[in-house]
Amino acid sequence: MEDDGKVLLKVGTLEWWLLATLPPLVAAAATWLEHLILGNDKWTPNHAHYSSYSEGSIIQTANLMLNYILRPMRHESFYKKYTGKRFMKVNILVRDEF
Length: 98
Fold this sequence. Notes:
Layout: H1 2-14, H2 23-37, H3 45-51, H4 55-70, H5 76-83, H6 90-97
Helix pairs in contact: 1-2, 2-4
């Protein structure tokens, strides 16, 4: 589900701890979290090769992203945008999954 990835990538622009993080690392962490949401918890050698990040190197960034999502909302417009019908209420799905 690509909308899950959109929510997770957007977190990288909203969470101030992630602003200095390299965009490919944020994208790799978003991909890793999306795989967890979809029930695929394996980060294969292909994932590591094409993203240039091992599973161990993205855990900290993914943790920051997940903490942002699970905390009480700071940006109401972000929450409302991704809980609407257009994005299939993906923000609720991500919050409920974790």
